[in-house]
Sequence to fold (702 residues):
Amino acid sequence: MQTLTNRAKPVDRRPMTVLEKLYLPAIAKGMGITLKHFFKKKVTIQYPEEKRPFSPVFRGLHILNRDEEGRERCTACGLCAVACPAEAITMEAAERMEGEENLYREEKYAAKYEINMLRCIFCGLCEEACPKDAIYLSETFAPANFKREGFIYGKNDLLIPDPKKEPEQYQKALGSRVKKS
Amino acid sequence: MSITQILFWFLTVMAIGSALMVITSRNPVYSVLFLIATFFAISGHYILLNAQFLAIVNLIVYAGAIMVLFLFVIMLMNLNTETEPQKNKWLKFAGTIAGGCLLLVMVAALRDADTKTTTALMKEGDIGLVQNLGKTLFKEYVVPFEISSVLFLSAMVGAVVLGKKD
Amino acid sequence: MINLAIDLAFILEKLVLIAVIIVISLLVALYTTFGERKVAGYIQDRYGPNRAGPGGIFQPFADGIKLFMKEDVIPSSSNRFLFILGPGIAMTMAMLTSAVIPWGNEITIAGRTISLQIADINIGILYVFGVVSMGVYGIMIGGWASNNKFSLLAALRGASQMISYELAMGLSIIALLMLTGSLSLKTIVDQQSTGWWNFFYQPLGFLIFLICAFAECNRTPFDLPEAESELNQGYHQEYSSMKLGFYLFAEYVNMFISSALMSTLYFGGYDIPFVNDASMGQSIGTNWLAVLQAVSLFAKVGFFLFFFMWVRWTIPRFRYDQLMKLGWKGLIPLALFNMVITGLIVLIKENGWPF
Fold:
């Protein structure tokens, strides 16, 4: 039969010799292999102290963005909710009142914005659908929780810190990816 | 009362008590366990006689090997009171007579033992030590010893033959 | 009138010695569990437990506390008394063996010479065999009392395995005893500290003893009583809390004792290699010599413990028929052959070349 890779080896079906039947050389060989591994460099990453770098295309928890003046970008158009294949996003729109210009960028804003992290599949389609650059997927992932309700993230969980009031935390929340672009 | 005597009485009570429990306990597994306890007590007596070799061989062979096999069989058979066969009344009668005869023989045999009293060797005696025992076995009693080993061999062959039969 | 004629100092000395040795063997067993997990980790390219204390050094205590805190379940259909007796026997029998192993030479404290051996009885090795053969009962009683067919099968397996390998072990020891001419472990060590170690006279015997020691301790590759793919958890299926802990712990104590026994019988015991112990004792004093000797013994024991673990994480488990075949058709004839050859050589050495 024509082999595909020429790497196939026929199985050796000869009866074992006396030395092979003793098994001791084979056992010694195996012990040698395990001993070699004993001194090898360990592949473990000690998690809380050491963290693996994320890939540049990693899609983690969502974040609701603000503009440079600290106003929320989201206008509650609902495109993200439509785009979401898992139907994880719900929102309620509200009209911007007089005197709230420093809070919301557009005249309409999301009064309630919830993402169910148990439903979310972190596909990033909401990010692509958003016309206002209001939603991004960050480099963190959802922490464990004791209750299912804990995985429904509201607006205060999702909003990025205000760049004016808390600039340090804002920079931290931006992560390494934004800086590069 | 020295410590040897205390140990002697303790071991004696233990040996007789557990020997009685062997025949009176309802559960066969308990019987085997009490039999093991009896062997332990007897081994203790051997140690008091400074026959360490005998004591430990008693433990290894009887308590360690044979009793394990007993336990094996009993555990696998899963004996309990429900599966116990109804005993014939006549069988009990015959058992009593046989036991009585055995008692008579024992009494007759032990009656003379009193005349040649020699106090049991306590601590000092060295008959039970390996060297002396080995020398006695292989010099004075070499023929009976070898014959008994041939007996064992034939028993083993017999067991193999029975096992092969299916 | 009870008049107890007992040397109180003697009893006190022995009690202290027993306590020390039991504490040491428990501690060693405790840390063997930790070492096992560490070795397993390192062999599998990971670190093993390293969170409790620096380098995970308190891990065994954490494990112990966890075992103690767990709910202690006694199955309602089990035989209560025997169910509790089983782990007790396993643990006691594992501890008893340490009585005859010489842990070092004599030390002198306040003018009293104390031998670092609980009992130098003249049948040392046989005592070890006797106690080891008792160890089967812990497994058998526990397995039967659980009233669970898997436990029972595992117990029967364990018992038959131990009985089978005891034979080969005994036969391999007989060849050694022909050379030493004594059953006392102390004498055997003394002979080795002046001459060569017994390993060089009895390599085949040592190999057989080693394999049988693995089987007696129910260690991989012979851990059939715990073959979880066939018997769920094995004979301790129904056990929980510290009763389970006792079974697991007894295994490690057994490992420690058999390592000590192997070092004593074949690797010179407390003899310090490449050093003349007697002359060294004169230069640094007998007490320091005894300490060094104990350290030397523990180094050997440590190596064997590591070897036990190394094998466990290398070799897969035997099948039951393979186990029996190896024991009865492999090791016993080999041990008999070794015995005959040794006997022949001893005979020739004693009588000169007769031909």
The beta strands of chain A are 62-64, 89-95, 108-116, 135-137, 152-153. The radius of gyration of chain A is 28 Å. Residues 62 and 137 of chain A are 4 Å apart (CA to CA).
